Request: fold
Amino acid sequence: MKYKDIRLDSIRADRPVRLAPAREDDLFVSVRRNGLHVPLLVNPENFRLISGYRRYEAIVKAGSRTSVRVGLPADLLEGCEEVRSHLDEQNIRSVPLTVRERINLAVLLAELPRPADAPARSFSSDTHVGPAVGLTSTILRRLRSTVRKAREGETDVDDEAVAARRTLALMLEAVERPPDGWTRRQAVRHLHDALGAGDFPRSLADLPQRAAGRRPGSPTVPPRRGFERAAVSKRTSGPEVRRALDAIAGACAGLASLDTAGLAPDEVAHTKHEINNTVQVLRQVVRGLPGGERTGKQ
Reply:
C-alpha cells in the first residue's frame, strides 16, 4: 500500500458509507487531540474517500489541519485487503456496518482499478469485494442488481422502482435475519428472482408460504394462476423482447468464452446449478409464448 499526505480539500467525501450521521464520541475527541493513527483509504484515480469517513469528518470539524495521511491502494485486491482489516477492527471497537452500508462500501471498492495481471474476461470484482465487506459474492451481486433497479429514473415504469425498493428492504432484512429453514443466500435469491418475475411476497413471513411446493432457492417463474401479480406487469413490446434476447445471447457468449478449468469443485457445482435454473426459466418463457406449449416440445 502506498501512503502519502494530500490536501484535505482534495478528498472527495461525497458518498459516505454509513447512513447514520456520525456522533461526537471518543473517536472525534481522539482525532482532534492526536490526529489520525490509521490513514484514510481513498481511490488513487479520483481521491474519492472509500473508508474513514468519520475520521475525515472529525478532522474537518477540528479545522486545525490542511493535509492528511491517506492510503492509495494500487488495485482492487489491495483495497479489499485493507478494507477487510478495517472492518475486523471496527467489529471490535465500534458499531458494525449494516448490510446496506456494506453495499455502499462494496460499490466504492468496485470502482478501484483491476489488477494489471487480471484476466480480462474471467476476473470478477464481486468475488473479492463480497468477502471484503462481509457478504458472499452471490448475495452481493443480487443486492447490487436490486439497488440499481430501485433507483429512480432507471426503470421504465415508476412502479418498478417502487417494487425494487420494497424487495431490497426485504433482502436486507433476510440477510440480517433469514426466515426459519432458509439460508441468507436462498432467501435473497428467491426475492431477486421473484422481482424479475413480477411476483414477490409482501413480507419475509410470507416467503416460505409463497415457495410452497418448490425447493428454497430454485428459480421463481411467473405463475399462471393462484399468485397475486404485482402492479408492475405490463404488455411487452417487440423491441423490448429483442433487447432482452440480445442481452441473454451476449451473456451466454461471454460465459462460453471463459476458461473454467481452474474452478474449484464447489464453484463447478454452483455454476451447473445456476445454468440449470436459467434453462428452466427460459423454458417457462418459451411455454408462455403464443403456441409455446407446442414450441417447447420441439
In short: The beta strands are 2-7, 40-42, 49-51, 67-72.
